[in-house]
Design a protein that fits this description.
heterodimer; A: 228 residues; alpha+beta; OB fold (Dihydrolipoamide Acetyltransferase, E2P); Ribosomal Protein S8, Chain: A, domain 1; 3 domains; four-stranded mixed sheet; 16 strands; 35% strand; B: 236 residues; Ribosomal Protein S5, domain 2; 10 strands; globular
């Protein structure tokens, strides 16, 4: 059975002694793909790395969201998924929230961007966020760019090769939201702009080979270095 | 000289019309597809799964599919009023039912998947072309599917069972029967019959329809695959 080939919905990908993984389903003894993607077999688990699709929230994921509404006890946050997320005031004010003293609108306004983690999510309710943790909280500087959520694995690269390249060559700090928003902070706006352009290139060329090398050349060229 | 039955457009009884398919034709939609079967031309956009408004329509344990089949005013010989007709409302429902079978709706509770079908030119078999285009667009949107749905009509014309009727044949046919199937998992998701067929004719027609669907499914798969011909895995 050849690994790393493109599979389509309804395509038979394994039979017998295998476990169905992400984006697959089992019928009798047969495992089929349910999305367009790249086949991946790890030990006995067959899964498909999807090439298209919306962000499906998972507990523990780091996401980047935009405040879209302020309530009495919580904020509503757009995380670019079929479900809007909720950030509770009790979480933001570390459990010492007093509606008489604390003002939600003064803390976070509609349009503010936050880096958060999904604390709770199941089929019956919308995702609940938390901003308590290292690297989480409101975004005060840098830029946020968009990438299709299904292309995030490409941005990370094998064992982080792509993202480490971007951080090093772009001289920026990069935070990846699993929902397809990426936060870039650099010393100079030009650095941030260059990384943003590189991410745009990844979006367009995600399905091609040798992308890491091309991004390397792109970054060096962008910084006026000699490309050999 | 062959004694084979020849149709109004010169096709053989078991021959499909020339088919053209493309996916990802609209940038703003989550998924899209364009399908031509002979002179029938259909454009489809898919959005979602996305938050559903009005909320009271939502299903607490699954996504709902909303489907709009619409014929452009210029799609027929006489101008067709753009107001949805009784027929269009019914076809929207029939297409929705044929497709919902294939979608893992239970993965996205409380959301909606919206499908917009625009018939640009109608020359028979628009519901089948729409279903073919929809399943391409759904796959293109990354919505989890049990299988691609493939569809084609069969009919009885001048006593002969024929595949993929065009408008002229459709109007003068003794019977016509649109069929949609999920070929890889062996399920029929749509079967309608207009007119009269004997039991034997019905069996013959269904066999022919399934053969036609298999051919269409092959073209659908080729179309989806051609987008990624250059892909080789470098992901984590």
């Amino acid at each position: 059975m050849s690994e790393r080939r493109i599979v389509l919905p309804g395509e038979l990908i394994a039979e017998g002694d295998y476990q169905p993984g992400l984006n697959t389903f089992k019928q009798g003894e047969k495992i089929y793909a349910s999305k367009i993607g790249v086949l991946s077999i790890v030990k006995q688990t067959v899964s498909v790395i999807a090439l298209h699709g919306v962000y499906e929230p998972k507990v523990g994921d780091t996401v980047i969201g935009k405040i879209i509404d302020v309530g009495t006890f919580s904020w509503t946050v757009d995380i670019k998924s079929p479900y809007t997320a909720v950030l509770n005031a009790s979480d933001y004010f570390k459990g010492r929230f007093n509606p008489a003293r604390d003002s939600l609108i003064k803390a976070l306004k509609p349009g503010d961007m936050i880096i958060a983690q999904i604390a709770d999510f199941d089929r019956t309710k919308n995702p609940v966020l938390t901003v308590q943790g290292p690297g989480l909280g409101v975004i005060t500087k840098g830029v946020v760019v968009e990438l299709s959520p299904s292309k995030i694995p490409r941005l990370i690269g094998r064992k982080g090769s792509m993202i480490n390249l971007l951080k090093k060559e772009g001289r920026c700090n990069i935070t990846i939201g699993k929902n397809g928003l990426i936060h870039i902070v650099g010393e100079k706006p030009e650095d941030e702009e260059l990384v943003a352009q590189a991410i745009g290139k990844i979006e367009k060329e995600a399905h091609t080979t040798g992308l890491t090398d091309r991004i390397m050349r792109f970054m060096k060229k962008g910084r006026g270095l000699n490309v050999d | 000289m062959s004694t084979e039955f020849v149709r109004v457009d010169g096709r053989l009884p078991n021959q499909l019309r020339p088919i053209k398919m493309a996916v990802g034709v609209l940038d703003r939609a989550d998924g899209s597809a364009y399908v031509e079967q002979g002179n029938t031309k259909v454009l489809v956009a898919v959005y979602g799964p996305r938050e559903l408004h009005p909320k009271h329509q939502a299903s607490p344990d699954s996504a709902i599919v909303r489907c709009r089949y619409h014929m452009a005013p210029f799609s027929t010989k006489e101008r067709k009023t753009p107001v949805p007709s009784r027929r269009e409302v019914e076809l929207s429902k029939v297409i929705r039912d044929a497709l919902s079978q294939a979608i893992f709706l239970e993965n996205f509770p409380r959301t909606s998947i919206d499908i917009f079908i625009e018939v640009l030119e109608a020359d028979g078999g628009t519901r089948c072309a729409s279903i073919n285009a929809c399943s391409l667009a759904l796959a293109n949107a990354g919505i989890p599917l049990r299988d691609l749905v493939s569809s084609v009509a069969v009919g009885k014309y001048k006593g002969q069972i024929i595949l993929d009727l065009n408008d002229e044949e459709d109007e003068n046919a003794e019977a016509d029967m649109p069929v949609a199937i999920m070929p890889n998992i062996n399920k029929i998701t749509l079967l309608q019959v207009n007119g009269v067929l004997t039991e034997d004719e019905f069996k013959q027609a269904l066999d022919l329809a399934i053969k036609g669907c298999m051919e269409i499914n092959r073209i659908q798969r080729e179309t989806l695959r051609s987008v990624y011909s250059a892909i080789k895995g470098e992901e984590e």
